[in-house]
Amino acid sequence: MMKQLSTKTGHDSSSGREVPPGDLMTNRQRTQLVLVLGALIAIGPLTIDMYLPALPAITAGLRTTETAVQLTLTGTLIGLALGQLLIGPLSDVVGRRLPLLAGLAAHVVASVLCVFAPNIAVLGTLRVLQGLGVAAATVVATAVVRDLFSGASFARIFSRLMLVMGLAPILAPTLGSALLSWTDWRGVFAALAVLGALLIVVAAFRLPETLPVTRRRHGGVGATVRDYRGLLNDRAFVGLVLVAGLAMAALFAYVSGSSFVLQREYGLDEQQFGLAFGAGAVGLIGATQFNVRLLRRYTPQQILVGALIAGTAAGLLLIVFAATGFGGLGTLLASLWLVLAAAGLALPNAPALAMSRHSEAAGTAAALLGAVQFGVGAVSAPLAGLFGTGSVSMAIVIAGGMAAALVVMLLVVPRASLGAVDPDLAVAGH
After folding, report:
1. Contact assessment for residue 381 and residue 75, using Cβ atoms and an 8 Å cutoff
2. For residue range 64-114, what is the model confidence (pLDDT) as tens digits?
3. Which residues contact 43 (CB under 8 A, 6 or more apart)?
4. Which of 214, 217, 268, 371 has the CB geometry, 3.0–4.6 Å to 92, for a possible disulfide?
5. Sign of dihedral through CA atoms 289, 306, 310, 42?
């Protein structure tokens, strides 16, 4: 069934063009593919977010500091960033299945060892390994879509996967809160190990190799270095990647700091925190889907600039509400959700503009983009707790990320170099 599509393509008799393998799939096969790839993509947000309600409990259980516990999130993001840089080009050389299965296996091993972590240093190190495994699933899932589809078909399939990307962060803290109602924080990592093992079975039996030997890259390390050099020499591409990374930094400052702020400062329990976190994710997802409608009237760069301006303004309001306590929890959450909605508009359009510039090296460009996003996010997570784990510290990092992204967009990215972008790309670019 799907195995044949990995090497088989068709031709359009009217135009003579080659038809991507995915266009030959039946609706049932496409649905199966979306479910499998969606499960692979979901492991990332679940690994990052499912243990967030347990951060205060980990702090007490391992007798460490809140900042040190937030560094375990940084470890995961570092693993994600480095893993994408390594696994993206590797999968172009050896195929998709081997890096995917090896990465999932590493994730399972790391998750099992997290259950028995004796101290925060060991837990942080294991979270880096978890991030490397998650990177394999994320990169390969994206690459498989690129192997099988192109153009509007690519955008439609990826848009469906974006719903999974959005739903997983909503469900993750809620699932973590539910687990914590009958187990301790170590049980969360046991659940992640089981999930990783199930994904190995699914990938082994339901996801064929989609990159034929004839289409694999050659040239070794030298070719990869040349691709990266070409990307880094493009000022507009680098600027857009930084914009995406700084917007992601604001998002991860919220992810890493919200559990301490909402549970300790505002008194929410683990279940209430899960609901509040999920409500913010709903705003983020809603904005990414509203982006599709906005693209019918505005260009991606117009939406991006507008979103960064709105996000910066909302971030400044967040600082005011956090510092003064005006309006209590309600105004704090409202301003937070406005920032998240702005990020939901910025995050699809910045990558779309960047990726449109280097279709000849899409895999390497995607790896660099993902690495910068998660790398900058890794820096922002401990910054949110550097001056304490209160709402003011979190608000400053969130607002700073959005403001810095706006400055880079206006001063570093040359507007004249941004040509027309297919709106489908901005749907699929997150």
Report:
1. no
2. 988 889 889 888 988 988 898 888 888 888 888 999 999 999 999 999 999
3. 104, 107, 134, 137, 195, 196, 199
4. 217
5. positive
- Give the span between the Cα atoms of 36 and 70, in whole angstroms: 31
Q: Please report, to the nearest 10 degrees, the dihedral formed by the alpha carbons of residues 403, 241, 284, 171 taken in order.
A: -130
Full-model pTM: 0.72
Nearest Cα residue to 39 out of 125, 127, 100, 126: 100
Spatial CB neighbours of 243, under 8 Å, sequence gap ≥ 6:
304, 308, 346, 350, 405, 408, 409, 413
Residue partners of 29: CB distance under 8 A and separation at least 6: 1, 2, 5
| Burial readout 127-163 (b: 16 or more C-beta within 10 A, e: otherwise) | bbbbbbbbbbbbbbbbbbbbbbbbeebbbebbbbbbe
Helix count and strand count (H, E) for the chain: 16, 2
DSSP line for 155-193: HHHHHHHHHHHHHHHHHHHHHHHHHHTTS-HHHHHHHHH
Please, are residues 99 and 90 in contact by the beta-carbon 8 Å criterion?
yes
Q: Phi first, then psi: give them for residue 84, nearest 5 degrees.
A: -65, -40
Q: How many CB atoms within 10 Å of residue 381?
A: 27
Q: For 206-219, how does the pLDDT look when each residue is reduced to its tens digit (9 = 90+)?
A: 998 988 888 777 76
Question: What H or E segment, with its residue span, contains residue 95?
Answer: none
243 vs 296: CA distance, rounded Å: 23
DSSP calls for 252-266: HHHHHHHHHIIIIIS
